[in-house]
Amino acid sequence: MVAGWFTGHGDDFRLLGTRCSACAAVFFPREDAHCRNPGCSGGELLEVPLSRRGRVWSYTDSRYRPPSPYVSDPELPWESYALIAVELEYERIVVLGQAVPGVNATDLAVGTEVEVVPGVLCEDAETIWTTWHWRPAEVTR
Question: Domain ChsH2 rubredoxin-like zinc ribbon, which positions (predicted)?
């Protein structure tokens, strides 16, 4: 788990960002040093939970093992996944993440409503590395 990037479980799972108290700009991943808005003289950076939902802004798929110098265990089978850029519902910032397993690029379209859920990046006998995934949102609202 990347400390400070998300919190909660199940329906309480949220990505965490920061908001500048001077200009109201929101950042993800979080910013703890200074406001990244070049037009802002700076303000206090406050941790804020981000929208759970957003709309697909762009997407692609990963169908092949990354080439060198990226590390990839050739002994393990390669599983493709969809990578989604999501414009968050309220903040209007774009956050990148993987789709939940089983959702492929062919299942997506720009504008599709998605929601953030906890996911597993990888695991071994001792550790589970938690991350976030995007899944198509349920219609019930």
Answer: 10-45
